[in-house]
């Protein structure tokens, strides 16, 4: 009786896992009704949300069947370990081990298919989000691409002009600072000269007297030369 129940559960699990695998293969995470271009067997007949609900339902059913099959295997293990069946113990252990191997294979296949389905759904959700952003961008600005490019070029030109103006202003400010520094130096030299002139007034007066005497001597010497020249001319003509 336990073997019959185990075989019945194994048959149900086999059918469920086949349907579960087909569902995972035909999953359309994009939710846009796109058809597979490689095989008509994997063509999604339902949209993404319906497939998600079917996936959850089938996963719960398979987990329940796996739990029942595990319970049947445990009962068979208890029977083989009970007293009164020593002569059939080896054959029963072999049968039990075979059912355990089948349960392990079904469990591994279920978890593998479930993991693949979740990975595909996550990837499709990400791709769908990116695709939606691209489509929204194209629909919103596809017509104005040329105008957008012109605006971007104009913006770049304005930025370049702004940068040149800033460089020119920087050069002008540096020149102003240099001229201000030079003016300060000249004012400092002039103030020092005035200080020296005020500190030595006698020297300034002496220099003025020397200049006056030099000018007077020049006038006297010029007058003497002029008189001598006149006398020589008078003497020469007489």
UniProtKB/TrEMBL annotation:
This is Golgi SNAP receptor complex member 1. GO terms for molecular function: SNAP receptor activity. The chain crosses the membrane at residues 219-237. It is found in: Golgi apparatus membrane. Involved in transport from the ER to the Golgi apparatus as well as in intra-Golgi transport. It belongs to a super-family of proteins called t-SNAREs or soluble NSF (N-ethylmaleimide-sensitive factor) attachment protein receptor. May play a protective role against hydrogen peroxide induced cytotoxicity under glutathione depleted conditions in neuronal cells by regulating the intracellular ROS levels via inhibition of p38 MAPK (MAPK11, MAPK12, MAPK13 and MAPK14). Participates in docking and fusion stage of ER to cis-Golgi transport. One of its GO terms (cellular component) is Golgi membrane. Coiled coil: none annotated. Belongs to the GOSR1 family.
